């Protein structure tokens, strides 16, 4: 579905909650405008749908390849959204905000299902790294990208345990930490050609 909304007039955005781009063509033509960005949400998981997303810790080799194929879908989503947006906004005055992205697994057993607590592994770190690379390559259109949650929910950079008072910085945290110097930087294309 497509929604146009304004958060206290700070950043009027057009929100698209979809993996299917059929409705994206509607948003850039939405009147009366003006809006500063189109919002896009997308989550990565191995299961077939949100009722069975796959396990954070128990996965097969096939699951490994499936999740990275699905993570690469973000590149296709941004490319297709940008192509449609370029038709109506060739000077790219309207940005694309990927305001929720990340790995979403089945809730850990023994936790409150409403809290969406899940473990975080190197697989999650690689998913985050892949997404950040995709966002950098589309920096001319992607003006903001937000990991869905930050503490104890979904692909969190930080996990805490109320009972013990411990806090763990997850593999995803370290990917974000290594990427922090790229904020507000300018993208430099670097291509390498191999002669065989």
Sum up the structure in keywords.
single chain; alpha/beta; five-stranded mixed sheet
Concise account of the structure shown:
By secondary structure, the chain is an alpha/beta fold. It has helices spanning 61-71, 73-88, 122-137, 171-179; strands at residues 2-5, 13-16, 37-44, 95-103, 142-147, 158-161, 166-169.
Question: Any overview of this molecule?
Answer:
The chain has 196 residues and is α/β, with parallel strands linked by helices. The protein contains four helices and seven strands; from the N terminus they run βββααβαβββα. The strands form two sheets. A five-stranded mixed sheet has the order 1-2-3-4-5, with helices on one face. Strands 6-7 form a two-stranded antiparallel ribbon. A hairpin with a 7-residue loop joins strand 1 (2-5) and strand 2. It starts with a strand and ends in a 17-residue tail after the last helix. The model is unreliable at 1-13 and 15-20 (pLDDT under 50).
